[in-house]
Design goal:
single chain, 1705 residues, mainly alpha, two-stranded parallel sheet, 78 helices, 13 strands
Length: 1705
């Protein structure tokens, strides 16, 4: 089929000129001309390029292949190309197949080839010429790539099956079918008669008349037997056609039969027999290379095949060279299998290990014929196969040793030395070089004896000289040396372009000089721009030789000769290669530079000689002034090359003069280098180029410390350049993933699922050619950039996100390549933090930048600087810039005038004339400011997530500073505005969410799409905000809108179902009626609003995450607590900064809980949604993941008024804004939508706040001692008292009210849990409050002595120890007051530096000179008041710190007064609780009636009340429950009376009433409650059940219900009543309790209340044994208390539970 063009990449490069010319020439040919042209192309003489460029021709070829493989109408096995009259078609077919094989060998992106199914069809041709041409093409595919292995199974399966048919054994040598015998032209009498006999067995399908058995089944074997098939005059296709009509041959066997027919039919003809042998050998090779021999390996590669192949090689007939070549290729493929036995067999059979062996003699003869003009050379195909075989053989140890043993080195060096000009000969030299490379280590003496190194260098010079004819240009840089040497060439420009004759020859097509934009004349690049490139064969030879030289230089065995390797012509050759990267390609350029590099590292003393001959200057010019080839390998090698060139002072000076870093780092901001920056695959071990480049630059800076300053300056300039690109209004950021057709490098092509198996060489070649071709494309793109219309001006799209990502990876790698902080310190000292942090807020960035990898990378660099250098300036700079962004967001906080709406929507509507206004920071400044704020927040989130205590202390101190607190205040304001904006935008996107006729926000909505034709379309190069990501379909617009806001709410701490009521009112994606309500105009508006909603919700989530992390930093717990068993240890007191930060965070909570909407808000739903967010957000701010509270946050929450606001919000919601009494709100018909959702969230939060076990036992407790200023400590006990009283008052307003439909069940669960907590906490609170009152009474005499209140609690011995360590008294005192142990105090001192105070601080802040002047003045008796001197920055900082400290002290004083108010708080009165529990049962019953699933919580509540109120209350509750059971059962008994003729009920109604009557449900819940109580109160329950005779009623009920159930079964309407199971369970409980009580009564006759002697029986000794005294008393107590105790361990090892005591004697 034709190439799928939709999957093609938009390549920015063009094909090489010669390649392009050939393509155009072939495209213009008719079929007749095409045959002639293709037949003339025997070898490939043009450059390698992508298959992409050949797509048009490949499509034409595909059509020809389809035509050739099309079956004739009347005969399905006769192909068009096999018809005698279609000879021109066959000629064209053979020509294009041979040409395609050449094309595939010398191209890449082979996965584009799409005609494989036609090739599979053509394997069924009757003409073996066609089959061989197809196999030749498949051979190239299999050897050069993994194309065949990556094919889909539907295309790979048939192809491999046909290949296996061709490759199968004919019987082997022992059966007379040896390959050599088959190749000889013998009489047919010499071959077995089966050679021309067709014998084929198969299982026929049943029901078809066949020759053998008329009643055939599929298990019956049939056969076709035709002797002397070659005598039949028909073609194999015609024979096959007739056989398929005669026999019912299975489809999967037909191709195998045809292959047998074709072989037997042609076997008697020598020419056809040779073709069949050749096809078989080809097929074996293809199958081996395609890894397709797993199952059939032993049958195809049978024992004896290798001997047969060698026999073919030994046939003297020179007419069989093609067969011999195929035989060599098959041997090569078998070597490729890496099977040692096969390799040994090949070496033995070919005699490779012996000088006079068959193969060595053959190779020497071939070489002699190649270099001796008087001899006829061997055919090219045979010689190529022979050298390829040698190369593969040498790749294995055994093969290499064999080649050394036979003296192959001398012969191979002859090949390299012989300067044949034929292009074909180059390929042999290349293979000879590779073989020599592989065996040199084994035969170093022979290599050196024959002057191997000189031969290599001489050959390299010869090949480079041939290249000079096409590309004579050589770099001649300005050499800044003493005047004597500089004079001749000093005036010449670097490229020497217009001056030398050679340059003029090479540039006839070069345009006139173009004004250069770079600092050097690199833009005036010479002839390689014309598209001339080194032919692939010569490039491969040069690559092999350079690779060898590179290894030889580093080999100790060559150490003597290597010192002089650069004395001859080698530097000249290397100069030419390095000067012409465009001509030779990046790979050769890289190898040439690496040869120089390894030489310098090997012989550093000889660097000066390279500098003298100008080689190093050429390298510096090529690397720093010209454009470096855009491949990952070249870029990654640069710092290593520079390290070598800088090994002496002269080299370092030359390097610095080139301004290297600025030039080098610019590759990170060039679109041409983007493909080289990307990883080809995630599994790529090399990683990404930018990181590797950074690591290498780091090494260079460490080897040459003098470069550190320049490199850091260049890095900072790079960051500043990114900032200028991000600010410049003429640019716009394009999508990172878009295919760049504007001169930007394209990504590698899309891969198939088997991409991981792709040969890496193809990737590298592809990238290499892209790099070569991008030299011209870069300038073209600069001249004609594609522009995008955004707003009224045209803007140029640039891959800004890719630039940022690569630069950040690069910088990160430099700064954090090792754990030292010297690079970070230098970066900070040169003020690099400002441009780094500025990147986060660039206006040209898209609105989804904060969620991108680029933003994460910037945050990662900031985090690295912070963690390595402990530099607080990172956070300071971020806070300063974030504050300016937040100031720009001030308009967001001001509500717009009535009728109101969304501020963001108003901004977007105001920019309605601008298409895609969300892309322009000028059109939508608020939206882009939100994006910038989000990016800063992501950076702070990243830096807060650290475990090191020092870094956490730095973070807290920065957030607790005046600047940090100011930013926190603005962030809290932003958070509130975001919740409001999200709520408004969501309602505007949702039909019918606003009251009819409401004008709220409608004016702005109408402006979005004033007319249909104004619907926006994405720009060509710009990005389409969020439309694609959020789901662009208009129909699903409203249905998919709620999730962003829900995500916002979830980010603020709500549960996943938090938006359920809102969603019930909105159209869902599955509701067809809802879809119909959304008009196209509405859908278009929704699509435009989505970026706003998405940006606000994502920022809300990020803010919630940041606030949560700040809470954890303030309370001192790391993000991950690895030592959970230490959680209960008392933590040190929070620092002043932590307390201030906590205060700011709780002020946010208070603001959210007391928020007032604008007066024109159309519906209370908006305020309720806001409160839902606030309540949900409060929970993670006050409690950890295990529901334990942070006491510091509780204290600040209480003191900031958040606690009061929380309960006032409840009253507001339940009173409907004060319109109705609180007690009536829940059942009011006009209760606003959303109230239930709010109450549910509110109750879940309050349930955590009243839980005594978590609040009192929290691991996040504050120290028991008070803060340093003598303020009262936070009392969790008092907090619990205050909260429980307030919560109890609220629960009473909800008790005995009708539950809400959606949230009633969850609300009831929370209410019952709160009541349980209150009742359980009552005795605990009274006990602890009593102890608290007793405690201070004993301490009063010591505490009221007056004087300072800070020192009496400090351990003087510990204080002295700390002062002996060198800490000041004040600092040590602060540490002891804030911690509990000596270790914690020491840790505190190390992580909290002391504040500078008074004169000492001023002295420290003064320079030495200032201090000296001051001392002289004082010695002269002059009075120097400090305030007369100008205030230094250090003093200003001290004064600022002092002001912050005073502000904190004032705030703490206010908090202390607030805490004192709660000191006298008393718990709930017992009488109040008693009154509630006495009247509680009706409320529980109502809950059970309406919400049966609450029965378990109700049971918990009743049991808690029973434990509190005693036996009388218990019996009362049980009697009431039993009475309710009786009443419900009685009603059901009456209803179950069989029907009479006078009844009006139908049979169906009578049957179903046992399950549908209200009393049926009531009975089920009451009995279930009774059984749950039974488990806790066995005997009391049993007594009440017995005394009430309720069991008789239940048994009667079971009796009378039987007819109903029987009738239901007959009517097939069986619906088992839910109450049956609990009834049976209750009866079972009662029976077990009765049996237990009787046994106990019997035992009581023998056992005393106390003092029993318990024993156990030992089975082994057959004796009764006594327990120990402690165990005996435990069992006795269990018996006396009638309660289960822990099992008692017997001495024998078995445990006897106390519930089953042994006999007592």
């Amino acid at each position: 089929m034709k190439v799928d063009r939709t999957k093609l990449k938009k390549t920015p490069t063009e094909a090489p000129a010669d390649c392009r010319a050939l393509i155009e020439k072939l495209k213009g040919c008719t079929d007749e001309q095409l045959v002639t042209e293709l037949q003339q192309i025997k070898t490939w003489n043009i450059g390698k390029c992508e298959l992409y460029h050949w797509v048009d021709l490949l499509d034409r070829f595909d059509a020809l292949l389809a035509e050739a493989g099309r079956p004739v109408d009347t005969m399905s096995w006769m192909l068009s190309c096999d018809r005698p009259e279609r000879q021109p078609l066959k000629a064209l077919l053979l020509a294009l197949l041979n040409f395609t094989a050449l094309l595939i060998e010398y191209s890449f992106s082979r996965h584009l080839y799409s005609s494989i199914e036609h090739l599979t069809t053509l394997l069924a041709s009757s003409d073996m010429h066609v089959v061989l041409a197809v196999l030749n093409l498949l051979y190239v595919f299999s050897k050069r790539s993994n194309y065949i292995t990556r094919l889909g199974s539907e295309r790979r399966g048939p192809l491999l099956a046909r290949l296996q048919h061709l490759a199968e054994s004919w019987g082997g040598k022992e059966n007379g079918f040896g390959l050599a015998e088959c190749c000889r032209d013998l009489h047919m009498m010499k071959y077995p008669p089966s050679a021309t006999t067709l014998h084929f067995e198969f299982y026929a399908e049943p029901g078809v008349e066949v020759k053998v058995d008329k009643r055939a089944t599929s298990t019956t074997l049939h056969y076709i037997h035709i002797e002397q098939l070659d005598k039949i005059s028909e073609s194999p296709s015609e024979i096959m056609e007739s056989l398929t009509k005669m026999y019912n041959i299975p489809k999967d066997k037909q191709m195998l039969l045809f292959t047998h027919i074709r072989l037997a039919h042609g076997f008697s003809t020598h020419r056809k027999r040779l073709q069949a042998v050749q096809a078989r050998l080809h097929a074996i090779s293809i199958l081996v290379y395609s890894n397709a021999l797993q199952e059939s390996a032993n049958s195809i590669l049978y024992n004896g095949l290798i001997e047969e192949l060698v026999d073919v090689l030994q046939i003297p007939d020179k007419q069989l060279m093609d067969i011999k070549a195929a035989s060599l290729r098959t041997l090569t493929s078998i070597v490729h299998l890496e099977r040692t036995p096969k390799l040994s067999s090949i070496i033995d059979c070919t005699g490779t290990a012996s000088y006079h062996g068959f193969l060595p003699v053959l190779v020497r003869n071939c070489i002699q014929a190649m270099i001796d003009p008087s001899m006829e050379p061997y055919p090219h195909q045979f010689a190529t196969a022979l050298f390829s075989f040698l190369y593969h053989l040498a790749s294995y140890d055994a093969g290499g040793e064999a080649l050394v043993s036979c003296g192959m080195m001398e012969a191979l060096l002859k090949v390299i030395k012989f300067l044949g000009d034929e292009q074909d000969q180059i390929t042999f030299v290349t293979r000879a070089v590779r073989v020599v490379d592989l065996i040199t280590n084994l035969d170093m003496a022979a290599f050196q004896a024959h002057s191997g190194l000189s031969i290599f260098i001489y050959r390299l010079e010869h090949e480079v000289d041939l290249c000079r004819r096409e590309c004579p240009f050589v770099i001649k840089p300005k050499v800044q040396r003493p005047p004597a040497t500089a004079a001749p060439e000093g005036e010449d420009m670097e490229t020497d372009m217009e001056v030398t004759d050679v340059a003029m020859e090479s540039s006839p097509s070069a345009p006139p000089a173009v004004p250069s934009t770079s600092s050097g004349p690199s833009s005036a690049t010479p002839s390689p721009r014309g598209g001339v490139q080194c032919i692939p064969q010569r490039a491969a030879l040069l690559k092999s030789m350079l690779n060898f030289l590179k290894k030889a230089i580093q080999d100790p065995a060559f150490s003597d000769g290597i010192r002089h390797v650069m004395d001859g012509s080698l530097p000249t050759s290397l100069k030419h290669i390095i000067s012409n990267a465009e001509y030779y390609g990046p790979s050769l350029f890289l190898l040439a530079t690496e040869v120089v590099t390894v030489f310098v590292f090997q012989e550093p003393s000889l660097l000066s000689s390279l500098q003298d001959n100008g080689l190093t200057d050429v390298m510096l010019h090529a690397l720093l002034i010209k454009d470096v080839p855009a491949t990952r390998e070249v870029l990654g090698s640069l710092p290593n090359v520079f390290s070598a060139l800088c090994l002496n002072a002269r080299g370092l000076q030359s390097f610095v003069q080139c301004q290297p870093f600025e030039r080098l780092f610019k590759v990170l901001l060039s679109p041409d280098y983007l493909p080289a920056m990307r990883r080809r695959r995630s599994s790529d071990p090399l990683g990404d180029t930018a990181s590797n480049l950074g690591s290498a630059v780091d090494e260079l800076m460490r080897h040459q410390p003098t470069l550190k300053t320049d490199a850091t300056t260049a890095i900072i300039k790079l960051l500043e350049e990114i900032c200028s690109l991000g600010r410049d209004p003429k640019y716009i950021c394009q999508k990172p993933s878009m295919q760049k057709g504007e001169g930007a490098g394209a990504a590698p092509p899309p891969r198939s699922p088997h991409a991981a198996e792709e040969a890496s060489s193809e990737d590298e070649e592809e990238e290499e050619v892209q790099a070569m071709q991008s030299f011209g494309a870069a300038q073209q793109s600069e001249a004609e950039p594609t522009q995008t219309v955004v707003g009224t001006e045209e803007r140029i799209p640039i891959p800004l996100m890719d630039y940022i990502l690569n630069v950040m990876k690069f910088v990160e790698s430099i700064l954090s390549n090792n754990t030292t902080d010297d690079h970070c310190q230098e970066f900070v000292a040169q003020r690099g933090l400002r441009p780094l942090v500025t990147i986060l807020g660039l206006p040209n960035l898209p609105v989804d930048f904060p969620t991108s990898a680029a933003c994460q990378a910037v945050a990662g660099v900031c985090k690295s600087i912070l963690t390595l250098s402990h530099e607080p300036k990172v956070l300071q700079e971020g806070l300063v810039q974030l504050e300016s962004v937040l100031s720009a967001l001030e308009p967001l906080h001001r509500p717009i005038e009535a009728p109101g709406g969304s501020v963001l929507l108003r901004e977007l509507a105001g920019a309605g004339a601008v298409p895609d206004a969300t892309l322009s920071a000028q059109a939508t400044p608020l939206l882009h400011a939100l994006t910038a704020a989000h990016a800063f927040i992501m950076m702070f989130v990243h830096t807060c997530r650290v475990g090191q205590s020092e870094i956490r202390a730095i973070s807290v101190n920065q957030w607790g500073s005046q600047l940090g607190l100011s930013v926190l205040g603005k962030l809290s304001q932003l958070y509130c505005s975001l919740v409001w904006e999200s709520t408004v935008l969501l309602s505007l996107c949702t039909p019918n969410s606003l009251p009819p006729g409401c004008e709220f926000g409608q004016a702005d909505m109408q402006k979005l799409v004033p007319k249909e034709e104004k619907a926006p379309s994405p720009p060509q190069g710009g990005r389409r905000a969020e439309g694609e990501a959020e789901g662009p379909s208009p129909a699903g617009g409203a249905g998919s809108d709620p999730p962003p806001a829900q995500g916002l709410l979830e980010g603020m701490g709500l549960e996943g179902e938090a938006l359920a009521p809102m969603e019930t009112d909105e159209p869902s994606a599955t509701d067809p009626k809802a879809k119909a309500k959304i008009t196209p105009a509405m859908a278009a508006r929704i699509k435009q609003i989505k970026p706003l909603l998405s940006a606000s919700s994502r920022l809300g989530r990020a803010l919630a995450e940041l606030f949560g992390l700040l809470v954890k930093l303030c309370v001192g717990s790391p993000v991950r607590q690895r030592r959970s068993h230490h959680a209960a240890a008392a933590a040190p007191a929070p620092t002043a900064a932590a307390r201030a930060t906590a205060s700011a965070l709780t002020r946010l909570l208070t603001k959210g809980l007391s928020w007032q909407p604008p007066p024109y808000t159309p519906t209370p739903r908006f305020r309720l949604t806001f409160f839902i967010c606030s309540v949900g957000f409060t929970s993670p701010m006050l409690f950890d993941e295990r529901k334990f509270p942070y006491h510091l946050m509780l204290q600040k929450f209480l003191c900031s008024g958040g606690h009061n606001a929380l309960f006032e919000t409840f009253n507001w919601a339940l009173s409907m804004g004060g319109k109705v009494p609180v007690g009536e709100g829940l059942e009011h018909p006009d209760l606003p939508d959303g109230t239930g959702e709010f109450l549910d969230a509110w109750l879940m939060l309050v349930e955590k706040m009243v839980n005594p076990s978590t609040v009192l036992e929290s691991p996040h407790a504050l120290p028991a001692k008070g803060p340093p200023h003598g303020h009262p400590p936070f009392s969790a006990l008092r907090f619990l008292v205050v909260t429980q009283k307030a919560a109890f008052a609220c629960i009473k307003q909800l008790w005995q009210r009708r539950p809400l439909k959606v949230y009633g069940a969850r609300m009831a669960e929370s209410m019952l849990a709160i009541l349980c907590h209150i009742l359980r906490a009552e005795p605990l609170l009274r006990e602890r409050l009593g102890r608290e009152r007793e405690g201070p009474a004993g301490d009063e005499p010591g505490g009221d002595e007056g004087g300072p209140r800070r020192e009496p609690h400090v351990n003087q011995q510990q204080l002295q120890q700390l002062m002996d360590m060198g800490f000041s008294r004040e600092h040590a005192m602060e540490a002891l007051l804030n911690t509990n142990t000596m270790e914690q105090a020491t840790e505190y001192l190390l992580t909290h530096p002391p504040p500078l105070m008074g004169g000492a601080a001023r002295d420290l802040s003064m320079s030495e000179e200032d201090q000296m002047m001051r001392a002289i003045a004082m010695s002269l008796g002059q009075d120097i008041p400090m305030d007369q001197r100008a205030e230094s920055p250090e003093e200003a900082a001290c004064r600022k710190e002092e002001e912050e400290r005073r502000a904190r002290e004032r705030q703490e004083e206010e908090e202390a007064k607030c805490l004192e108010k709660f000191e006298g708080a008393e718990p709930l009165e017992p009488a109040e609780l008693g009154a509630f529990t006495d009247s509680m049962l009706p409320g529980c019953s109502r809950l059970l009636d309406e919400l049966p699933d609450t029965v378990y919580r109700v049971c918990d509540l009743l049991m808690t009340a029973v434990r509190r109120n005693g036996p009388a209350y218990r019996d009362s509750v049980l009697k009431q429950v039993v009475q309710q059971v009786w009443e419900a059962a009685d009603v059901l008994i009456k209803a179950a009376v069989p029907l009479t003729t006078s009844d009006t009920k139908t049979v169906s109604e009578w049957i179903s009433q046992m399950a549908t009557l209200p009393q049926a449900s009531n009975l089920a819940t009451r009995i279930l409650l009774l059984t749950l109580l039974f488990e806790e109160l066995k005997l009391p329950c049993a007594r009440v059940v017995e005394s009430s005779c309720v069991l008789d009623v239940l048994i009667k009920l079971l009796e009378v219900v039987q007819p109903c159930l029987q009738a239901a079964k007959e009517h097939k309407e069986v619906q088992t009543p839910k109450w049956i199971t609990p009834v049976l369970l209750l009866i079972d409980f009662y029976e077990k309790t009765a049996v237990s009580s009787k046994r106990r009564a019997q035992m009581n006759k023998y056992l005393q209340a106390t003092g029993n002697n318990w024993r156990w029986f030992d089975d082994r000794s057959g004796r009764w044994c006594s327990y120990s005294a402690s165990n005996n008393s435990t069992i006795d107590a269990a018996w006396r208390g009638r309660r289960a105790q822990r099992p008692v361990q017997r001495p024998g090892g078995a445990a006897t539970p106390s519930s089953s005591p042994p006999w007592c004697r």
